[in-house]
Amino acid sequence: MKGVILAASIALVVLLVGYMAITSSSYEQVSQLAKYRKPTMVTVRALVADIKTFPEKDLILFVLKDENGSKIYAFYGLTRFISQYGAPPSHSTVEQEVIMRGMFYPERMGDVLGRMEIKEILQGCHKAYEAPPATGG
Question: Is the pTM of this model over 0.70?
Answer without folding.
Answer: yes
